[in-house]
Fold:
Amino acid sequence: MTVLHLQGVSRTHGTGENLVHALVDADLTIEAGELVAIMGPSGSGKSTLLNLAGGLDAPTSGEVLVEGTVLASLNKKRLAALRRRSVGYVFQDYNLVPSLTAAENAALPLELDGLSAGKARKLALAALEEVGLDVKQADRFPDEISGGQAQRVAIARALIGERRLVLADEPTGALDSHTGEEVLKLLRRRCDAGAAGLLVTHDARHAGWADRVVFLRDGKIVDSSAPLAGADSLLEGAGS
Amino acid sequence: MSVKHSLLALLERGPAYGYQLRAAFESATGNTWPLNIGQVYTTLNRLERDELVEALPENDSGQRPYRITDTGRRHLAGWFASPVQAADRPRDELTIKLALAVTTPGVDVTDVIQRQRGATLRLLQEYTRLKSAEEHAELAWRLVLESMIFRAEAEIRWLDHTEAVVARAELPAPFPFAVGEPDPAEATPELNRSRTN
Structure:
């Protein structure tokens, strides 16, 4: 099932001499179960693409479809609802609300969606457990837990409910390499379980976790790898 | 890769015959460097000739195990004690290719870099997948796999760097070879000149 579809998407900023082509005629499709990495030099349009995919920004031309819905066809209220229910974000700096506990942060999208606090908490605790956060941490505040734990909370929040699209912008930014790898593994597992993931990274090692890697340069997709073959055929080619 | 030292290291675990050695080598390196059995036997013969191993009597199933000698042990210790020299590694074809790409007329260096990066990234994806599929892999195999991951990562970083350097630099005009001047002494000032530029 196609979760994200970008069709001829362009985004420009400014006009006349100051016209900047942030993204040029991008086509991209992500199926459920797929993790796609976006790489490219800084300023190549990676974050622009991610923001357009999540409806945080609107394209100048072209269409963005999330689970079959054209984002431009929605009014503000519906777009916000779709963002809440279908799309999860993981940012470099976690973006947790400092005055809410880990569990409250994870439950936030559900509560905003009108679920009762009790039900939301129950689901949040389950989501936190799934991302490997110790139950004891659930009632701590963001500044009382480590960066790795905070990012786990952010991922739990990104995936709580029925959301199938996870957008991650350098999610391992401030983490040490071991914790960073744990976060990537987690993202990978969630995609294996049926989510669609879009991961912006400058780190080849992290892109290694993806099924496909898309390269951007000057706002254009310059290269896009085909999905990997099955794991069985891998060993033969590994040494050559 | 030194088959000789690998076999000595394996024999340090105890006497073994050719097929056992090959199987042990492949399980330690996860079939990354397949070893053919002929290679194993010719190497064993050479090791025996140099008195680094000795053949034991044939066993009931007709296999002839080998045992490491004291000389072999000293030789092996020497191998572990000395760092791998740059000269022992194969030449790096990619470095040579890119060095030539920037001086060969009509070659789009960015294209060469992008194609290589795509291929290496793909390898990296495959290694990563292998690694995540085998959480409890043998330590030796894990080391080999991680070595390949680090290498692929380093190569991609170097390609990113090279791409940026090439984009900033004005590509040197490839100077054509002088006609009818075979004297290598004539070439030296040229080399010096290009180096100081």
Observations:
- Strands of chain A lie at 2-13, 20-31, 35-39, 61-66, 69-70, 87-90, 165-169, 196-200, 212-217, 220-224.
